[in-house]
Automatic annotation (TrEMBL):
Location(s) in or outside the cell: Lysosome
GO biological process: carbohydrate metabolic process; glycoprotein catabolic process
Location of the Beta-mannosidase-like galactose-binding domain: 29-203
Function recorded in the entry: Exoglycosidase that cleaves the single beta-linked mannose residue from the non-reducing end of all N-linked glycoprotein oligosaccharides.
Gene source species: Pongo abelii
Gene: DKFZp468F089
Stated name of the protein: Beta-mannosidase
């Protein structure tokens, strides 16, 4: 019990009782299905699927066809409950709140059998006043409604007009109406992901008790004053003052390394109060700015804020402050119509090179800190400097952004809306407004976040008429679009965050979109803003097919994950390219055929007499094809930085689709179950299927260990294109892979991500 008791804030001076206590409700809860036939223990944070798996009631959800077999889990209405004793005298506290950092998603909450509130948004943080219902011994219940059933109900209740799409394409085997629920949009399925609409308490939950006043949150923005040429820091703190009298005192803000210490007098009236402080950093002090990876250091400064309030109440907070400016430059370009679209960090134009980030697992409780660190470290190891947190997933956890700050990864942050139109009735808007205001406060202090973007592809969906809306009805949807992304989300960003730009969508035409009334005739124009580009028909070795755009924020090609990855979630009968399993895992219409077609343009397709060999070789060829295609396209965008050809060019960003995978299936990802694909540069004078004189290469590897690293000394009998090293299921990173071996010997290093022995590798 004592471990759960966290003394948050101590009342200094007279040695009296603490001014705030927090009691964590993490750990074991009881989970029960709708008709009471299943009752099991479950961890919080966590979800029903994980609890069922841990008890052995279901297999690995990613195994074979289990996404379909376990559909019943998401269609049931589960209840999470817990009984607990509070290990301090609760009656001594003026105010007691139940804090839920993340509820997935639709629930009614009962505390000691009294309904205290409801939730409908997995991206919001909830706080409920339980002062009048809390006792020493308590019960709590979260009665969930299936998000799938809720979404269907909401869509049915929206009778005035349809809000498309109703359902995902059949090939995705997903659930319908995800646009009616504020939940991870890809959890109802995507063209690379399964349908697992989870239910549960996915983040921290706790009870907070306090007297006098309580600091609910604090956030800050470093802002550069160009005319005065100095840095300032805007700090916002929000209090709940429960004392009947005003609470006065001092605030001391200190950043020792910048020789900055400032003191302010404050007086907080009873009720909810916001304190805004403005800290000036003297011009005479050199402030080292934060730079993206490859452009400089990621210097940060420790800051403490001490609130010394009446009655000896001291509240102290600390944080790391990073200083950087970001501007989105949209200006005329000589020799090209339209406007530029690029970022200046600390006044310097920077080419954004990187990828798109999706949720790392359908079940967030399986995403460990180690996995996040390894994936993000791989980003910088591959010389990327940017990730786009894509709008069909989740706002990532704090740790993700802290790592990006530390590693110098710029984050293009979408709001969580993707590939759909959305309703704008008041209930929906209220929920979105709370979500957006909360996320802005949570993330705005991170220098890594360099832009907010309203949604993924919804301007394009509307204006390219993906959902066949009649011309006469279009104004209704445009009005909804402007209401949601401009008036509400845009308005909240404008009011809450002055330290980075906001665009309404991706792709968008930026200033041109604004000029056209927030929706452009062609949001994917090469002359404005960013583009998303996919072409599976043209040969990808021909760079002429790629758009010479200002900024390519999505482009890519599918491939299959390695056999060692698939092996774990399949059985022998699945191991062919046309098996039921291979078709089932492919969520992109025609995807398997497109990959073979693209590979067949330059390679002889696999045709061994051994079907398993053919399957393995086919997988390998799809990866080689993908690497070649993404390489050619990326190099094209990099080259286009410094040229205008046929009035097009000045490309300043290339973010390929997609960095990571959510499960073991064909996708556009380059990093799948912990493998990094990083091709080196060379030029083929013909397709490899037409090359003459290539001999079959015999390659041997001698493995030795040097500390934690393994050395692979390779020797080949002939020139070998696309040499692929695979160590089965051992997670780690090769210093190079998928390379062309023209020399007789070559040394490659393997960095394991877990303690590994030489025997396991051999
Ligand atoms: C874009 C993305 C994703 C999708 C990808 C590949 O549309 O925004 O929605 O997964 O292309 O099709």
């Amino acid at each position: 019990m004592r471990l759960h008791l966290l003394l948050l804030l101590a009342l200094c001076g007279a040695g009296t009782a603490a001014a705030a206590l927090s009691y964590s409700l993490r750990g074991n809860w009881s989970i029960c299905n709708g008709n009471g036939s299943l009752e099991l223990p479950g961890a919080v944070p966590g979800c029903v699927h994980s609890a069922l798996f841990q008890l052995g009631l279901i297999q690995d959800s990613y195994y074979r066809f289990n996404d379909l077999n376990y559909r019943w889990v998401s269609l049931d209405n589960w209840t999470y409950s817990k009984e607990f004793k509070i290990p301090f005298e609760i009656s001594k506290w003026q105010k007691v709140n139940l804090i839920l950092e993340g509820v997935d998603t639709v629930s009614k909450i009962l505390f000691n059998e009294v309904t205290i509130g409801e939730t409908d948004n997995m991206f919001n943080r909830y706080s409920f006043d339980i002062t009048n219902v809390v006792r020493d011994v308590n019960s709590i219940e979260l009665r969930f409604q299936s998000a799938v059933l809720y979404a269907a109900q909401q869509s049915k209740a929206h009778t005035r007009y349809q809000v498309p799409p109703d359902c995902p394409p059949l090939v995705q085997k997903g659930e319908c109406h995800v646009n009616f629920v504020r939940k991870e949009q890809c959890s109802f399925s995507w063209d690379w992901g399964p349908s697992f609409p989870t239910q549960g308490i996915w983040k921290d939950v706790r009870i907070e008790a306090y007297n006098i006043c309580h600091l609910n949150y604090f956030t800050f923005s470093p802002l550069y004053d160009k005319s005065a040429q100095e840095w300032n820091l805007e700090i916002e703190s929000a209090f709940d003052v429960v004392s009947s009298k005003p609470v006065g005192g001092q605030v001391i803000v200190a950043i020792p390394k910048l020789q900055t210490q400032q003191t302010y007098n404050i007086e907080l009236q009873p009720g909810k109060r916001i304190v805004e402080l403005f800290v000036n950093i003297s011009k005479n002090i050199t402030v080292e700015t934060w730079w993206p990876h490859g452009h400089g250091n990621q210097t940060g400064y420790n800051m403490t804020i001490l609130f010394e309030l009446d009655g000896g109440l001291n509240i102290e907070k600390s944080a790391k402050v990073y200083f950087r400016t970001v501007e989105l430059i949209e200006e005329p370009i000589k020799g090209s119509p339209g406007l530029s679209f690029y970022f200046k960090i600390n006044g310097f134009p920077i080419f954004l090179k990187g990828s798109n980030w999706i949720p790392a697992d359908s079940f967030q409780d399986r995403v460990t800190s180690e996995l996040l660190r390894l994936l993000l470290q791989s980003v910088v190891d591959a010389n990327m400097n940017t990730l786009r947190v894509w709008g069909g997933g989740i706002y990532e956890r704090d740790e993700f952004y802290e790592l990006c700050d530390e590693l110098g990864i710029m984050v293009w942050q979408d709001f969580m809306f993707a590939c759909a139109l959305y309703p704008t009735d008041q209930g929906f808007l209220d929920s979105v407004r709370a979500e957006v205001a909360y996320q802005i406060k949570r993330l705005k202090s991170h220098p890594s976040v360099i832009i907010w973007s309203g949604n993924n592809e919804n301007e394009e969906a509307l204006m390219m008429n993906w959902y066949h809306i009649s011309f006469t009805d279009r104004p209704i949807y445009i009005k909804d679009y402007v209401t949601l992304y401009v008036k509400n989300i845009g308005g909240l960003v404008l009011a809450g965050d002055k330290s980075r730009p906001f665009i309404t969508s991706s792709p968008t035409n930026g200033a041109e979109t604004v000029a056209e009334g927030w929706v452009s005739q062609n949001p994917n124009s090469n002359y404005f803003g960013d583009v998303h580009f996919y072409d599976y028909i043209s040969g990808c070795w021909n760079w002429k097919v790629f758009p010479k755009a200002r900024f390519a924020s999505e482009y890519g090609y599918q491939s299959w994950p390695s056999f060692s990855t698939l092996e774990k979630v399949s059985s022998t009968e699945d191991w062919s390219f046309n098996s039921k399993f291979s078709l089932h895992r492919q969520h992109h219409e025609g995807g398997n055929k497109q990959m073979l077609y693209q590979a067949g343009l330059h390679f002889k397709l696999a045709q061994s007499t051994d079907p398993l060999r053919t399957f393995k070789d086919t997988i390998y060829l799809t990866q080689v094809m993908q690497a070649q295609c993404v390489k050619t396209e990326t190099e094209f965008y990099r080259r286009s930085r410094s040229e205008i050809v046929d009035q097009q060019g000045h490309t300043m960003g290339a973010l390929y689709w997609q960095l990571n995978d959510i499960w073991q299936a064909p996708s556009w990802a380059s990093l799948a179950d912990h493998e990094l694909l990083s091709p080196t540069n060379y030029h083929f004078l013909s397709s490899l299927k037409e090359a003459v004189g290539l001999c079959k290469a015999q390659i041997t590897a001698i493995i030795s260990q040097q500390g934690d690293i393994f050395v692979f000394d390779l020797e080949t009998t002939a020139v070998a294109p696309f040499v692929w090293l695979d160590v089965g299921s051992i997670p780690g990173r090769f210093s190079d892979n998928g390379f062309l071996m023209t020399e007789k010997t070559r040394t490659i290093l393997f960095y394991p991500w877990e303690p590994t022995s030489k025997n396991e590798l051999e």
